[in-house]
Amino acid sequence: MVDPTADVALSTVDCESSLYNDIQALLKEMNSQSASQKGRLRWSLQKRLQSDPSGSVSLIRVLLKELEKKLKMISETYKMQPYMHVIPVLHTLYYVVIQSGAMIPTSLYQTVYECLMKMLILPSPYSTVALSTLRSIKMEMITPGSLYQRRVTAEQSLKNEHFTLREKVFVLADPAVFSVQLEATVRSDLEVSSYLRNTPTMEKNVVLRVLETGLGTTCQSSRLAQALEALEDHMVEKCFQEVVLAVEQSIKHGAGGRASYLNKLQDIHKDILTASKEDIATVDHGSACSAAMPFPEINFLLWRHDEDLWNLLADFALKVRRDSVQSEDSGTEGHQKESDFDDREQPPDRNPVPAFSRRNAFKTMKSADKLTLMKEKIEAFPGSSPVQEEDSRRQIARVVVMGDDRVLGRLTRAYHSIRERESKHLILIKKLNLQLYYIPVTDAEPSPSPPDSLCQGEGRLSLASLLGRVDPWYNSNINSLRASISKLDGMRSDHSKPLQQNLFLLDTLCYYLRCGTQPVNLPLYSVKMTQSSCGVSSVVQEVFVSHLEADIPEFRHIKEKCPKEPAARRQKATVEVFGAVISVSYTKIPLSKREVVKGVAPMTYGVVITSEPAAVTSGEDYLTVRFDSVNPGYNTVIQTQNISVRTMEHRTLSVCLDKDSRRTYTDVQRIEISPCLDPGCSIRTRFSVSSERERLLSKYLDKVLSLPINTFTGVTL
Predict the structure, then answer these.
(1) CATH topology assigned to domain 525-564+576-675
(2) Cβ contacts of residue 335 below 8 Å, gap of 6+?
(3) Is residue 375 predicted with pLDDT exceeding 60?
(4) pLDDT at residue number 84
(5) Which of 139, 395, 397, 416 could make a disulfide contact with 166, Cβ separation 3.0–4.6 Å?
(6) Where residue 367 falls among pLDDT bands split at 50, 70, 90?
């Protein structure tokens, strides 16, 4: 007689062997230089699990073995490669757990939990991601189905009284990069999510998934699915509310509430089957729940005006407030003063020169609001899992920008403006947790620029490259998207092709939004420019994140005529004019951080300043400043955090920020650059008990404003 258990065991071994090979290929791909196919292996593995949810248990076992192997290699070799591979394994583990429709054995969860506990001894950021994964595993182990329920409820804004966290996704694309055809194609790919959303269907999926995950083999999945389909919408909503309540009560009570939770699920299961008036087949055919998580609603738009971001966030915050007023007439949310949104009612400022003029940030602000701004900065520290630990009164606005360095420059400008507005009157921070994401996209072909314009050089993906070096998993999954997106331009004129072919971008974006929770903090710099026009001086203040380029227009012809030849030949050229005399003062970084060098007056035709974040320097943030001369022998490079450059001989500079010709300033006589201070960390109050608390808190805060771009690894700065 043939033993059926032997066949099952053999099938399991074959499945795990196949999955092991897939994981090894996934990790090997990270070391590959080819970007064209990166991210496809992860996507294929995700699709495989969706078509066969039963493989999730086997994949968790494979990932567990891989983590244990990495721990052993780290303890024996202390080399970086095992560290690098920890991140993708952890995120793959989390994604398997959250999307799995199968019941995971408690014993397997316990083994995974113990392994993750050992990983907490790893250096940051690896221990940070391990801790986030550990919290997710612990919650799912105690309350099966909770990760899926919370994620879908937040992403789909499913109304209920027990878990009120809401999420909104905004994708802002730079029109300088997106052609009309590319915009239409990407919009079509991303906004598919809007057509696939149906509230009763979402609620049924949540109920079915939680009951299947929690009850396992005792759940009559096929009968349950039929019973849910037969119920009227108001009954489905009632069941959904009961499931959410059961999940939230279980999370609140911790491990001691697990038995009560499972009993409650049994009651809900029985009630649904009883409530259905239709004849339901007695034969159960296993899981009836799709393993694919529903897509969140994606709001895609071209970012044409600086204030677009503020308006989107303010509208979202106002809508949340209206919803809370309607659903909680007697609650604190419903009684919030209208004045909280007074600032939004003012007409938007469309002045293209944003400024961060002199501010009386805390002159009329309440003490509690001042502390909120500081607390918000502290909470930006990597290590928390948003869906698990967010205050239920706060909503999550996920903002994804698509473009090159120029769109991050625009985001920098908008982010500083938001912080400055909030420092005067809290509007968004009380309501919204702002999460920032970046998908690099560049022009398929370099767009022609006038020969006399600044910022026409190549290399507009320097920040994408930086993020890719910091986080190889970001490089594999997100940096690789730029090649795929660029190929879409003019490529898909036939939109009748199968939908499956269009889902790679949307699936990858969703993966990024759900797993990319660890920020890399890019320092911002303030630049004060003194302009002179028709004998009248004016001052403009701006911010930049990656790049500032200044040149003297009179000497551009020298730069253009300079042949692109080896340095030795150029040094022998007969050109006598190397540039103009400029005065420079700065603070040296490498040797003496306090030494101020003054009176430097190099001969130059231009200055290029690039940011070097601590994320890649493994030290501290600084600027690399290069003074260019036609003769390379006269070129000078310094490192600093503060610098002032002033023209001599009645000449002026043309200044371009973050490689964006739309942010070019002319007739500039002087530029002064320093780290940009966070308006929310400026303390100007009279002496009081509360202001003393603010001073103590402010003392330990990093007052420099950084742009937090979410990645999979993150960097603790």
Answers:
(1) Tumour Suppressor Smad4 (2.60.200)
(2) none
(3) yes
(4) 83
(5) 395
(6) low
